[in-house]
């Protein structure tokens, strides 16, 4: 048996995770069996989107998006339900605390990542990314803002009709290798890359993917979809030596054969579509399959595996790099009984195994954290890959 056939026989149709969740944060249900999220205490969540486990200590950081705040658990596996740290709010849940943007407010925070000794947060509707150079230990202001001149500014593209290397429009995803910073600048349909750790407010990016220049913000660069264009890039991850971009608006993932592509580079592989031109939900088919996606909003990796939150299909999919080719079928699944089903909570009542519009995902050691956004909860599960 050749090696590719052996991989097929070993990994086709695996479950991504072991049977039972190890922890669930949030997700309380009312008497009707529906989520009860509208509270401002430290244990409730409302449509969380982004999350990360910090590699320095395993702490859990998540964007509690509907409450316009970031929560941090220093020991997420301890059984403690209340977050240790709250950023962006005091006791409320209003956008920018019901006032104007400042260093201590958030407005629809989305992606979050470890960035060196600290964290970076995509403060999406303030059109900025906030950077804490060290992990917050209390409610404290960030050190650096990108996309705006200062912490009190919050206009898309700084109020201009075009983009620039130092502006942002609805940034959704952030990624860091400890020095370089990558931002999925969703409303400008591009990915920006800083070659060195940003050190000043409003610092311009060095590289760009998805557009032919820093000023253009058209969907797919003003043309049809291609291997180098984007429409609503939403999340980023490294997959061994590759950079991957969840291009949610084109219902696909772009895979670059480098962690640091040159500006305007073409992706080498496309997952979720059969070619670089098709951009329809589930490839234009009536239902889902192992080769299709519908609005993938989250992405992470685990060794040889790429894991994608196929959000509108309410499932996670995983690809093995032994089968990396454009249009390849996923080899593992979570959230549905098979690759053809795609109902929210599998069209059943919410339960500990179900998913409803999963967004952010992040792998730490052999555990995955899942922002199960439609169920207003975060799940920690052990990987079975």
What's this model, at a glance?
The chain has 385 residues and is mainly β.
Order of helices and strands: HEEEEEEEEEEEEEEEEEEEEEEEEE
Q: Give the tally of β-strands.
A: 25
Outline the biggest β-sheet.
Answer: 5 strands, mixed
Rg over alpha carbons: 19 Å
What does this protein structure show overall?
Pfam families: NHL (PF01436). Keywords: Repeat. This is NHL repeat-containing protein. It comes from Zhongshania arctica. This protein is mainly beta and 385 residues long. The chain has a single domain, classed as TolB, C-terminal domain (Neuraminidase, 6 Propeller). It has 1 helix and 25 strands. The strands form 6 sheets. The protein has a 5-stranded mixed sheet with strand order 1-22-21-20-19, with no helix packed on it. Strands 2-25-24-23 form a 4-stranded antiparallel sheet, with no helix packed on it. A 4-stranded antiparallel sheet has the order 3-4-5-6, with no helix packed on it. Strand 19 and strand 20 form a beta hairpin. The longest helix is centred in the first third of the chain and has 9 residues. The two termini are 22 Å apart.
């Amino acid at each position: 048996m050749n090696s590719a056939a052996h991989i097929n026989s070993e990994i086709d149709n695996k479950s991504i995770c072991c049977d039972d969740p190890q922890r669930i944060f949030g997700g309380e249900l009312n008497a009707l069996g529906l989520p009860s999220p509208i509270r401002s205490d430290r244990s409730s969540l409302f449509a969380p989107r982004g999350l990360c486990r910090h590699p320095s200590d395993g702490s859990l950081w998540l964007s509690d998006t509907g409450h316009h705040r970031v929560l941090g658990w220093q020991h997420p596996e301890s059984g403690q339900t209340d977050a240790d740290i709250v950023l962006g709010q005091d006791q409320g849940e209003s956008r920018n605390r019901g006032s104007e943007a400042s260093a201590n407010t958030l407005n629809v925070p989305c992606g979050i990542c470890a960035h060196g000794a600290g964290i970076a947060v995509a403060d999406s509707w303030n059109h900025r990314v906030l950077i804490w150079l060290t992990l917050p230990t209390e409610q404290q202001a960030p050190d650096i803002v990108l996309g705006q001149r200062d912490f009190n500014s919050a206009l898309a593209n700084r109020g201009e009709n075009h983009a620039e290397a130092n502006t942002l429009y609805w940034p959704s995803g952030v990624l860091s290798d400890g020095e370089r910073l990558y931002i999925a600048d969703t409303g400008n349909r591009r990915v920006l890359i800083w070659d060195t750790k940003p050190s000043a407010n409003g610092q311009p990016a060095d590289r760009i993917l998805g557009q032919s220049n820093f000023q253009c913000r058209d969907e797919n660069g003003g043309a049809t979809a291609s291997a180098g264009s984007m429409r609503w890039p939403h999340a980023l991850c490294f997959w061994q030596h590759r950079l991957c971009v969840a291009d949610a608006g084109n219902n696909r993932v772009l895979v670059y054969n480098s962690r640091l592509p040159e500006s305007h580079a073409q992706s080498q592989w496309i997952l979720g579509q059969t070619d670089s031109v098709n951009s329809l939900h589930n490839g234009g088919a009536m239902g889902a399959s192992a080769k299709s996606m519908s609005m993938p909003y989250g992405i992470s990796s685990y060794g040889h595996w790429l894991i994608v939150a196929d959000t509108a299909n309410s499932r996670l999919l995983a690809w093995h790099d032994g089968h990396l080719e454009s249009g390849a079928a996923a080899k593992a699944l979570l959230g549905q009984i098979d690759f053809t089903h795609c109902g929210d909570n599998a069209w059943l009542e919410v339960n500990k195994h179900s998913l409803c519009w999963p967004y952010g995902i992040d792998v730490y050691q052999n555990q995955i954290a899942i922002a199960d956004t439609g169920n207003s909860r975060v799940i920690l599960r052990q990987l079975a890959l």
